[in-house]
Amino acid sequence: MIFEQLSINDIPEIVVKQNHRLVKGFLSIVIVASWVAGGLLFISEFLHKELKDVPVTLYVFLILWLAASVILILSLAWIVFGAVVVSIQDNALTIQRKMGSIMIGRRGIYAIGQIKNMRIEDDIYKYKSKIGVKHAITFNYLGHKLRMFSHLSKQEAESLLNGRLQKFVQNKT
């Protein structure tokens, strides 16, 4: 994870970017390029036939291929440009996901006084018959458990929780 602390108009922010961007980005580029090349070869049939001779299945394939292409490209853009930004303003903790300067999804705004039990939780997963553990920072808010960051190493999670996030949440219990 890449951590940055910014100060915009005296409002501190924590920016967490994905780890292994180079490897994931390269693999995503290869997948997107293969997907586009394979689809274009198939669609070349579409370009060589008259519109009345094109089967309906080719139209369906074209629509599905374009939709999957958009999803792959957005996924690649998130890997390369995506970040989770946590800031505090007016006694509220704000969590937002950004891709470059564009906000993605809904912004989570949580009253500092209502945040309870901020902690590190383990996410256990299996990859190639090996068990791995990633860590997430979670907290309770008005009776609901919310996740702030996921897929952190133990050291990254402890660094955020004991360092930069400690000043965001005064009532950690």
Mean pLDDT: 76
Fraction in beta strands: 35-45%
SSE succession: EEHHEEEEEEH
Strand order of the largest sheet: 1-2-3-4-5
Structural class: alpha+beta
- The gross shape turns out to be elongated
Cα gyration radius (Å): 22 Å
Low-pLDDT segments, ≥5 res: 4-11, 169-173
Q: How many alpha or pi helices? A: 3
Number of strands: 8
Give the terminus-to-terminus CA distance. Answer: 26 Å
Helix content: 25-40%
Largest sheet: 5 strands, antiparallel
Features:
8 strands; disordered C terminus; 3-stranded antiparallel beta sheet; 5-stranded antiparallel beta sheet; alpha+beta; 173 residues
Describe the structure.
This protein is an alpha+beta fold and 173 residues long. Helix content is 38%, strand content 43%. It has helices spanning 21-48, 56-81, 154-164, and strands at 2-8, 11-17, 82-89, 92-99, 102-111, 115-127, 130-141, 144-152. It has a 5-stranded antiparallel sheet with strand order 1-2-3-4-5. It has a 3-stranded antiparallel sheet with strand order 6-7-8, covered by helices on one side. It starts with a strand and ends in a 9-residue tail after the last helix. Helix 1 packs antiparallel against helix 2.
